[in-house]
Backbone:
């Protein structure tokens, strides 16, 4: 599978993301660095997910190449934020509920479900069939919403 790294600002955003997240990869990472890492990933992922939403709702022209690219980026990004939920990151500039650390198994299941569903979204995008894409998008959104409902502060 070939991946198009356009638009240019995606590369810039990913470089920024790496710059922000690299300090969070060390064993001595600080809570705020981990929080910044996960927030940055979710922010970038939201951009591409919103584009897909606009497409499936008919507010953005259907361009199969863009849809494939957007879905692929959502899939990649869905795998990155979890290391930012380290112990000690329940406090600080975060929208995460402390329940994440008390219901770790449930949180891990939802994060795994998101990764699986974003893979299904990418596969649906590869078909170029808008109906399949819309269904996969809705299922992915349902997983996002389930996690937000349980583990995100309003």
Residues:
């Amino acid at each position: 599978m070939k991946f198009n790294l356009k638009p240019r600002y995606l590369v810039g955003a990913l470089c920024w993301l790496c710059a922000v997240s690299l300090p969070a990869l060390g064993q001595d990472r600080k809570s705020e660095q981990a929080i910044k890492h996960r927030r940055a990933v979710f922010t970038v992922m939201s951009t591409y997910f919103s584009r897909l939403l606009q497409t499936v709702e008919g507010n953005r022209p259907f361009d199969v190449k863009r849809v494939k690219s957007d879905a692929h980026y959502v899939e990649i990004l869905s795998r990155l934020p979890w290391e930012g939920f380290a112990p000690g990151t329940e406090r600080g500039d975060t929208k995460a509920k402390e329940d994440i650390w008390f219901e770790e198994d449930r949180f891990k299941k939802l994060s795994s479900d998101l990764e699986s569903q974003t893979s299904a979204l990418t596969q649906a995008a590869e078909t170029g069939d808008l109906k399949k894409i819309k269904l996969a998008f809705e299922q992915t959104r349902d997983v996002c919403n389930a996690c937000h409902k349980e583990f995100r502060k309003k």
